[in-house]
Amino acid sequence: MTTVIQKYGGSSLESISKMRAIANKIIESKKIYDKIVIIVSAMGDTTNNLIGLSNEACKSPSKRELDMLLATGEQISASLLTMILKDTGYDAIALTGQQAGVHTKGIFCNAKISDIDISFVNKHLNKGKIVIIAGFQGVNEKGETTTLGRGGSDTTAVAFAARLGCKCEIYTDVEGIYSVDPRLYRKAKKLNFISYEEMKEMSHLGAKVMECRSVEIGHSYQVPIYVASSLNDATGTLIKEWDKKVEKRSITGLSVTDDVLMVTLKNIPYSSSNVAEVFTLLAEAGVSVDIISQTLPRAGLVNLSFTASAQDYKSVKEAMEVIAQKHSNVEIKKDNEIIKLSVVGTGMRTQSGVAAKMFRIFADNQIEFQQVTTSEISISYTLDKTYKQKAVDAVATAFNL
Amino acid sequence: MTTVIQKYGGSSLESISKMRAIANKIIESKKIYDKIVIIVSAMGDTTNNLIGLSNEACKSPSKRELDMLLATGEQISASLLTMILKDTGYDAIALTGQQAGVHTKGIFCNAKISDIDISFVNKHLNKGKIVIIAGFQGVNEKGETTTLGRGGSDTTAVAFAARLGCKCEIYTDVEGIYSVDPRLYRKAKKLNFISYEEMKEMSHLGAKVMECRSVEIGHSYQVPIYVASSLNDATGTLIKEWDKKVEKRSITGLSVTDDVLMVTLKNIPYSSSNVAEVFTLLAEAGVSVDIISQTLPRAGLVNLSFTASAQDYKSVKEAMEVIAQKHSNVEIKKDNEIIKLSVVGTGMRTQSGVAAKMFRIFADNQIEFQQVTTSEISISYTLDKTYKQKAVDAVATAFNL
């Protein structure tokens, strides 16, 4: 008995006619797999329209009720897609997250799946039904509807695949995972596979195809995740465990994070408590600090730089004002014209010289970087925005991405 | 501790700004009542739009999934109204039918409330919260979402009032119950009260303000039902038990049913089995027959007339074709230009002469009727459509409606 989970995104379900095409795709799959579970997102702009209504209702809508509101979007697409399948003669059943046994914990609008009671879904699968589940939602221990935050339908899909021990197919509006965002680099190659670690790192560094959380669940439970287009049959990308015997490439992908805020504090009297104070203030303000760099002390003074998301500009500004009052001779420079360019590859673990090659590329192309930071499988640089395209082209070409 | 149930219809919730007005009405009520439960319909045209989508999806959408689809409409309005109330500083909570403990039995799209587990609602009421419940829906013994059919939100409201032993206020787009539909008779009087029986009879006979079922539940559990406008503070109509000591009026209201189909079968060979056969065929075709009249046998032949809803035209036609084949000399006449005019009044029980007065009115105004039928508290006539306005005016004037 072969089983598959398929997840269809909102743009592939935005109209009844598009849903019909998806129904045909599901029917084709039914010829291959014995058991099929479909996870759906809300139709097209539904979620945004509902958020719009809630924002019209009040400035900061109650999160509990926002979850009840947003969960309707996926319930609508699940019931309509099921009607279409039933109408074509296939036995199918639509389930809300609650009915499908998705139990959650944690806060509204960003709940985590705590458990899936698979018995209800299995009962229907064993009767030969195609099971259509409203993604992105579950029910907490109080019986309240909760949603799973960004990428919640992918999370639902991967969690069901983990629970059923099967493959997870994510059908979306792109043809798979690219080494570089094709909008940035026209010649970007579609990857046949990517490792869980690389995908997590790329999601974390700004690639938008898959949310980090779904990939983490997939990694933990060793769920093969296949990402492909809902519109055609082109081969997509398989996210799986890194295969060190086969894979030779050092760099799998390049990603760019726009709107980085870089702050430089010059002439801080050097002491570990002074430096600690800066990051304590930022943490208290809820700012997530990314890259940190510090110069060597000179005449008892240091320069300290850090980056954060430009979204946190206001919180950063307030924290820095506190510092400025304490150390009147500190010079604070906030730069909003910064991007972060990262290269990611599990191969870096075993292949040295990636950092050296990157420095050489930057030097050859007269690209100045401001900071550099490394993780086990990535290297990131902060650059002035003006270097963005030039750097992407140079790095992508050099590594044949 | 005083408690009230208030139900708001779709037209009063069709936009966020209208919802804000309703929120203010609820807040005013909170000054009078200790505990408030609000039942909401779907916003404006939401239900019709969802039905439209389902019809686009397929010709006869699966009723199970249609219920899952339609139930989202009330969940949307409940969550948005709750957000607005919370934003103005009032503690409120939105509940789906299932969360509010509405258990149902029977078929999808027309389920009946079998029980209300009031504990969850009571828990929140006891904490001082305004409880906002998605009307029109419940959950069956399998955990599936069900809807209650036409007037389902009213049914929800009256059922909750019955369960909590309190008054039920239905806020709608009309100012109350009128003796005659004001669109038919401009001078129609708004009733301060109407008895359950009269209201049931009038709903049954085509008055559209309240569905018969909600009034039946109200009658069974002696729930005072107050029907008023959601847009202004004009006094509405109280539906309650008939008070024979106080009430003198013989006729409370007049109602008209349009699109009546009248069928006359002439020259049927007279035998009870022949007549029975006609109605057996109609029953098997699912046709609900209303008024039946039969002439006295003459030369072994009778004429038989009956009315049904014009919606059943196709089914009636098929049944009559079977009859025509059996009795080749039977002449069948289907007339679609018929209306039914009814007068309703609990007072008829104790005051005689209503029928006589009606015949006199018709005679004085040269109005010909085709059939007449009586129930304990109503008299109905079928008339040619052309007499409609003349008959309404004459009867309404004569009985001072």
From TrEMBL, chains A, B:
<keyword id="KW-0028">Amino-acid biosynthesis</keyword>
<dbReference type="Pfam" id="PF22468">
    <property type="entry name" value="ACT_9"/>
</dbReference>
<feature type="binding site">
    <location>
        <begin position="208"/>
        <end position="209"/>
    </location>
    <ligand>
        <name>ATP</name>
    </ligand>
</feature>
<dbReference type="InterPro" id="IPR045865">
    <property type="entry name" value="ACT-like_dom_sf"/>
</dbReference>
<dbReference type="InterPro" id="IPR018042">
    <property type="entry name" value="Aspartate_kinase_CS"/>
</dbReference>
<feature type="binding site">
    <location>
        <position position="47"/>
    </location>
    <ligand>
        <name>substrate</name>
    </ligand>
</feature>
<protein>
    <recommendedName>
        <fullName>Aspartokinase</fullName>
        <ecNumber>2.7.2.4</ecNumber>
    </recommendedName>
</protein>
<dbReference type="GO" id="GO:0005524">
    <property type="term" value="F:ATP binding"/>
</dbReference>
<keyword id="KW-0547">Nucleotide-binding</keyword>
<keyword id="KW-0457">Lysine biosynthesis</keyword>
<comment type="similarity">
    <text>Belongs to the aspartokinase family.</text>
</comment>
<keyword id="KW-0067">ATP-binding</keyword>
<dbReference type="Pfam" id="PF00696">
    <property type="entry name" value="AA_kinase"/>
</dbReference>
<dbReference type="GO" id="GO:0005829">
    <property type="term" value="C:cytosol"/>
</dbReference>
<dbReference type="InterPro" id="IPR001341">
    <property type="entry name" value="Asp_kinase"/>
</dbReference>
<comment type="function">
    <text>Catalyzes the phosphorylation of the beta-carboxyl group of aspartic acid with ATP to yield 4-phospho-L-aspartate, which is involved in the branched biosynthetic pathway leading to the biosynthesis of amino acids threonine, isoleucine and methionine.</text>
</comment>
<keyword id="KW-0220">Diaminopimelate biosynthesis</keyword>
<feature type="domain" description="ACT">
    <location>
        <begin position="263"/>
        <end position="341"/>
    </location>
</feature>
<dbReference type="GO" id="GO:0004072">
    <property type="term" value="F:aspartate kinase activity"/>
</dbReference>
<dbReference type="GO" id="GO:0019877">
    <property type="term" value="P:diaminopimelate biosynthetic process"/>
</dbReference>
<dbReference type="InterPro" id="IPR005260">
    <property type="entry name" value="Asp_kin_monofn"/>
</dbReference>
<feature type="binding site">
    <location>
        <begin position="7"/>
        <end position="10"/>
    </location>
    <ligand>
        <name>ATP</name>
    </ligand>
</feature>
<dbReference type="InterPro" id="IPR054352">
    <property type="entry name" value="ACT_Aspartokinase"/>
</dbReference>
<dbReference type="InterPro" id="IPR001048">
    <property type="entry name" value="Asp/Glu/Uridylate_kinase"/>
</dbReference>
<comment type="pathway">
    <text>Amino-acid biosynthesis; L-methionine biosynthesis via de novo pathway; L-homoserine from L-aspartate: step 1/3.</text>
</comment>
<feature type="binding site">
    <location>
        <position position="178"/>
    </location>
    <ligand>
        <name>ATP</name>
    </ligand>
</feature>
<dbReference type="GO" id="GO:0009089">
    <property type="term" value="P:lysine biosynthetic process via diaminopimelate"/>
</dbReference>
<keyword id="KW-0418">Kinase</keyword>
<keyword id="KW-0808">Transferase</keyword>
<feature type="binding site">
    <location>
        <begin position="172"/>
        <end position="173"/>
    </location>
    <ligand>
        <name>ATP</name>
    </ligand>
</feature>
<dbReference type="InterPro" id="IPR002912">
    <property type="entry name" value="ACT_dom"/>
</dbReference>
<comment type="pathway">
    <text>Amino-acid biosynthesis; L-lysine biosynthesis via DAP pathway; (S)-tetrahydrodipicolinate from L-aspartate: step 1/4.</text>
</comment>
<dbReference type="InterPro" id="IPR036393">
    <property type="entry name" value="AceGlu_kinase-like_sf"/>
</dbReference>
<dbReference type="GO" id="GO:0009090">
    <property type="term" value="P:homoserine biosynthetic process"/>
</dbReference>
<feature type="binding site">
    <location>
        <position position="183"/>
    </location>
    <ligand>
        <name>ATP</name>
    </ligand>
</feature>
<feature type="binding site">
    <location>
        <position position="74"/>
    </location>
    <ligand>
        <name>substrate</name>
    </ligand>
</feature>
